[in-house]
Amino acid sequence: MNEIKNYLEEHKNEMINFLTELVAIPSVLGEPEEGCPFGKYPAAALKFMLKKCSEYGFAVDNVENFAGSAELPDMDCQLGILTHLDVVPADPKGWSGDPFTLRRSECRLTGRGTIDDKGPAVASVFALRAVKELGIPLKKGVRLIFGTNEENGSADLAYYRKKRALPPMIFTPDGEYPLINGEKGMLRIYFSSPFDSEIHINGGSVINAVPETCEYSFKNPDISGIIHGKAAHASTPEKGENAITLFLDKFSDESPLLKSIQQNFQHRDVEGKAVFGDNSRNFSCVLSMLKTVEKLGNTFIEGGVDIRFPMERTKAEVSEIICGKLRAAGFEIDSCEGVEPHYTDENSDFVRALLRVYERVSGLKGECLTIGGGTYVHEIPGGVAFGAQFPDEDCRMHSPDEFITVDNLLKNAEIMAESIVEICG
Questions:
Q1: Are residues 110 and 180 in contact, defined by beta-carbon separation less than 8 angstroms?
Q2: pLDDT for 222
């Protein structure tokens, strides 16, 4: 443990410089281009990562810019560490500086992707570097896998799995400690309807976050403004303040269609009781996007809803309820996609090994968690989320001024390196 810890401390500035360069690539989902399935910037981030890994002596593999990997040469891979290099959008108006310029202020590293998931990706590289360069012997190989579309459906991972077999054990530092072995099911529904051209609304930018602002204007009466809420991840909507539902509470009487939305998505009804009634326990239901658009001279209102549901419910059951409510309110369902809940046995050797390492390195109690969010391993049998956020820590994931502390960047790398040794040594 001391050797690994000392190695990482000696390479601290190199890690920060690496993360600085990676954050500077604004790897938000873009328009597909030839050779860039999710836009040029996610592909650029992947190419940069693989170039650095090659320089460190790892065998690298780029699967058509969907995803890539780095591993120790000539070893049978049994453990995979899965991270992603794409990020959610960052509106500069909410930030204290440029979101894509890493800023170091005392103990914090602030910038889009620092905790989700570029910081953990860099930590995984230096974890494997530490094991390699310290000459710690391994009996099993390790593969670092880097994706580019986790924030928008994980089509990258689906494609990668068609082309490459995954190692039998996988963890992702795309969640929180101690360890997440259970994840709720997820549905994302987009809906629309013809709408009054006198009213214009623009609230939310992604479907998996509580919207922080909602801009509006009415021609009759002639008023306009912006409502401010508080951003939060859609898996923990109770931590946010939904600007769209605040808008609906104030202005739903302006339109029967707005009233119907307000009746189904009431402010602070984060469990979706208006939709799911008394069966909403352990649900979260977030109206994430709402805007008016012009289509061939006709005005439409478009919305998006993010729903997380517990282990005892199914995707088909939940989608039937929510889509039925929306259709009854006068909307067409444009798409309804999701995944079933995910569970990995908390008593498996793999899970117990990771928890042992966590307790040894952090000094904190190791236990399994079930969450409302969907991590990168949601559809990988036996996969778990392990890090990167520590208990009682809020690194503003998906929010302005997202950060990771320098200490926790190093601590994540140390935990990953010790996990490699524990499982593969």
A1: no
A2: 85
| pLDDT exceeds cutoff 90 at 205 | no
Identify the pLDDT of residue 235: 84
Q: Structure tokens of 177? A: 């400690």
Q: CB 152: neighbour CB atoms within 10 A? A: 17
pLDDT band at 208 (very low <50, low <70, confident <90, very high): confident
Gyration radius (Cα) of the chain, Å: 22
Strand order in the sheet with 298-309: 223-228, 213-218, 199-203, 284-295, 298-309, 185-194, 332-339
Contacts 24+ apart (CB under 8 A), 319-327: 319/187, 319/189, 321/275, 321/276, 322/187, 322/189, 322/275, 322/276, 322/285, 323/189, 325/264, 325/275, 326/189, 326/191, 326/264
Residues found in the chain? 425
Q: Hey, what are 338's tokens?
A: 């999701």
Tokens, residue 38: 């999710």
User: Contact at 8 Å (CB) between 85 and 147?
Assistant: yes
Query: Mean of the pLDDT values across residues 56-68?
Result: 98
Cβ-contact 172, 385 below 8 angstroms: yes
- CB proximity list for 397: less than 8 A, separation 6 or greater: 115, 116, 233, 389
C-alpha torsion sign, points 373, 370, 114, 118: negative
How many helices (H) and strands (E) the chain has is answered by 11, 23
Convert 259-284 to b/e letters by CB count within 10 Å (16 or more is b). ebbbebbbbebbbbeebbeebbeebb
What's this model's pTM, rounded to 2 decimal places?
0.78
Cβ atoms within 10 Å of 302's Cβ, excluding its own? 18
Phi, psi (rounded to 5 degrees) for 94: -95, -5
- Residue 398: what pLDDT? 87
Alpha-carbon span 260 to 381, nearest angstrom: 40
What element of type H or E holds 59? strand 59-63
3-class SS of residue 242: coil
Q: Are 104 and 389 in contact (CB under 8 A)?
A: no
For 21-36, how does the pLDDT look when each residue is reduced to its tens digit (9 = 90+)?
Answer: 999 999 999 999 999 9
CA–CA separation, 346 and 351 (whole Å): 6
Helices (H), 164-298: 243-251, 256-264, 273-276
Nearest Cα to Cα of residue 261 among 273, 237, 244: 244
On average, the pLDDT of the chain sits at 95
